[in-house]
Specification:
- The chain is of the alpha+beta class.
- It has 11 helices and 15 strands.
- The strands form 2 sheets. It has a 9-stranded mixed β-sheet. Strands 2, 9, 10, 11, 12 and 15 form a 6-stranded mixed β-sheet that branches.
- The chain is globular, with a radius of gyration of 18 Å.
Length: about 350
């Protein structure tokens, strides 16, 4: 079993209200900057990011490329049948189809993405081929599947017996709404059939020994979503964005709100202006809360960021968002994000 260390930072990091100006109060930089001892470093969203980071670290510790590291890392939860929020073990849409979304971005600004991809268990690797083999950024649906099959990926039935059972239970009431932090609750509490399950994502950012950044993001989307629904995870600038001069950011939670704020791009641009990673994430979360204060209290959105110096940070709407850190001095660090509510 992977060891887990949780570290909850002291101080007034959980801000419960916006200021009169609508901007979340800024904390002193020394209180919100987490520094890795040295590159390389890899960070990822949620508890399952710990295991994903281990696979990424195997690439980074050999001075491998950050791009290879993030692909290898997120393939771990994609293949985990016990993870109902990412990849092959994901819960289906309301019509019983498991559809996956993913994107990847390298240090040169190259990027690839797939959305609403069915029958392929590793969408992140298909996204990388879209980046490397086509003139396009995104392929979707049947076109993405055709591309994957033409490039040697095997067609699979992604609907596991566990997911099918949960879907059939859900069909009895058809009651759909997101549930805050279901990503972690699924690992720590008994999941009763028919609960409303909000699928989520793993986002990963890596800084390699050469000082280059890359990122990856992959998900099975919200459980029992409308057929064809796509969230932020495969959208460059929303679920993921990397600028090798500045840093990278990734998002988790209800994707519609991340898309509306172009959240990951916003976080990176704030870091360009000098914001430390956590403050940049805090500001992006604050914009969501300011625009839709009532909705923001009922959903989860979190951002995770890593800058060119190896400094990292996160911030979320709700308590319960965790993120994993892996570097030479500690491989299994798991932190609780600060939050607005």
């Amino acid at each position: 079993m992977i060891s887990r260390r949780k570290f909850i930072r002291s101080g007034a990091l959980g801000v419960s209200a916006l200021s009169l100006s609508g901007r979340i109060p800024t904390l002193e930089h020394e209180n919100v900057v987490n520094r890795a001892p040295a590159k390389p470093i890899v960070i990822a969203t949620w508890d399952f990011g710990v295991a994903a980071n281990q696979a990424a670290w195997e690439v980074l510790r050999q001075e491998g490329r950050a791009l290879d590291a993030v692909e290898a890392g997120v393939r771990v939860p994609e293949a985990d049948l016990g993870n109902s929020t990412v990849g092959k073990g994901g819960y289906p849409d309301r019509d019983g189809h498991v559809s996956l979304d993913a994107c990847i971005m390298d240090e040169k600004g190259n990027c690839g993405s797939v959305a609403a991809l069915e029958h392929i268990s590793h969408p992140i690797s298909v996204a990388r081929l879209v980046m490397e083999k086509t003139p396009h950024v995104m392929l979707v649906g049947e076109g993405a599947l055709q591309f994957a099959l033409e490039n040697g990926f095997e067609r699979e039935n992604l609907l596991t017996p566990k997911a099918e059972k949960a879907w059939k239970e859900w069909l009895k009431d058809k009651n759909y709404k997101p549930v805050i932090n279901i990503e972690n609750k699924s690992f720590t509490t008994e999941r009763l059939p028919g609960n409303e399950h909000n699928h989520d994502t793993i986002g990963m950012l890596a800084l390699d020994a050469h000082g280059n950044l890359s990122g990856a993001c992959t998900t099975s989307g919200m459980a029992f979503k409308m057929r064809g629904r796509v969230g932020d995870s495969p959208i460059i600038g929303a679920g993921l964005y990397v600028d090798n001069e500045v840093g990278g950011a990734t998002a988790t939670g209800v994707g519609e709100e991340v898309i509306r704020t172009v959240g990951s791009f916003l976080v990176v641009e704030l870091m360009r202006q000098g914001y430390p990673p956590e403050e940049a994430c805090r500001e992006a979360v604050g914009r969501i809360a300011k625009k839709k204060p009532d909705i923001a209290k009922e959903i989860q959105v979190g951002f995770l960021a890593l800058n060119k110096k190896g400094e990292y940070g996160a911030f979320a709407l709700q308590k319960g968002f965790s993120y994993a850190i892996c570097h030479a001095e500690q491989r299994d660090l798991l932190l609780d994000s600060a939050s607005l509510y």
